[in-house]
């Protein structure tokens, strides 16, 4: 009896979802999702800003964009190329590796990967307890250090920085695999000595890490000039510490950085990508006001960090704006 009614319930549910799908199809509405990052990072609110701009133009495009919090760049690239998500935010260094079949994608070039536009700069940010003796990357030896969850861009960068600095991340320290959103509280609770986060500034996570009872410092990442020359997607950068007045540092802290990008797949239809690119390009000044980490972006930055071929929908939007190089 119970089984019978369950069966009917699921049949009903199935019929209902088929009905819904056909209604939305007949209405021509397109649903698409942007993969972002942790809720205290910059990807999540940036994805929200993009979605807001496109959704407000429902009468023009009939697109419903939503945002999903995810593990970060590597996760987003894999989800987009496998067709699980239509869009993703991903660091330029990882976009380049995925397209060329390097790093995590060694020998598996992601041919479906397409770029849409460039976004804000991100800095490899190393935060340590001020009471610790951690003043350089080498000092991380024997400490508890969060390098980030699998799927995050910061994990890839932390491993790069440690390796290039002569630190064996698997043996020289206690590497933790926590999400970036969990690390600040763990550092405040003395359950971590330091953490890496590749992120735009300002952001909620670093704000949380620097505003607690335990004073923290930004640790410079230097001495990697050859490494940066060999890997052109990295550039030298400085952490603007004035954004975090409670941190120990009073001068900008040298580090290395990347830029971030919006990515999609060649399988996503041209009109959808066009609508997303067009809204951000055409309303760039209001887009920039939607998060302080986007404030200093310039229009030409929309063309930075794009290693994978540009999706034809994005190309159309840039051409219309007279921006195609
Ligand atoms: N760069 C980080 C990553 O790829 C995400 C930063 C953010 O969410 O703002 O995992």
Helix-strand blueprint:
Layout (H helix, E strand, L loop, with lengths): L1 H25 L3 E6 L7 H13 L2 H4 L1 E6 L4 H9 L5 E5 H9 L12 E17 L14 E3 L6 H12 L9 E3 L6 H6 L5 E6 L4 H7 L5 E3 L6 H6 L4 E5 L13 E13 L4 H13 L1 H5 L23 H9 L5
Parallel strand pairs: 1-2, 1-3, 5-6, 5-7
Antiparallel strand pairs: 3-10, 4-7, 4-8, 4-10, 9-10
Characterization of the model:
The chain has helices spanning 2-26, 43-55, 58-61, 73-81, 92-100, 153-164, 183-188, 204-210, 225-230, 270-282, 284-288, 312-320; strands at 30-35, 63-68, 87-91, 113-129, 144-146, 174-176, 194-199, 216-218, 235-239, 253-265. It is of the alpha/beta class. Strands 1, 2, 3, 4, 5, 6, 7, 8, 9 and 10 form a 10-stranded mixed β-sheet that branches. Strand 5 (144-146), helix 6 and strand 6 (174-176) form a beta-alpha-beta unit. The longest helix has 25 residues, at 2-26. Residues 22-26 have low confidence and may be disordered. It binds glutamic acid. Glutamic acid binds at residues 37-38, 41-43, 72-73, 91, 122, 152-154, 198-200.
- As for the CATH topology of the largest domain, it is D-Maltodextrin-Binding Protein, domain 2
Kindly estimate the percentage of residues that lie in beta strands according to DSSP: 15-25%
- Total of helices: 12
Helix-strand pattern, N to C?
A: HEHHEHEHEEHEHEHEHEEHHH
- Work out the radius of gyration: 21 Å
Let me know the average pLDDT.
Answer: 94
* Number of structural domains: 2
CATH level-4 homologous superfamily of the largest domain: Periplasmic binding protein-like II
- Small ligands present: glutamic acid
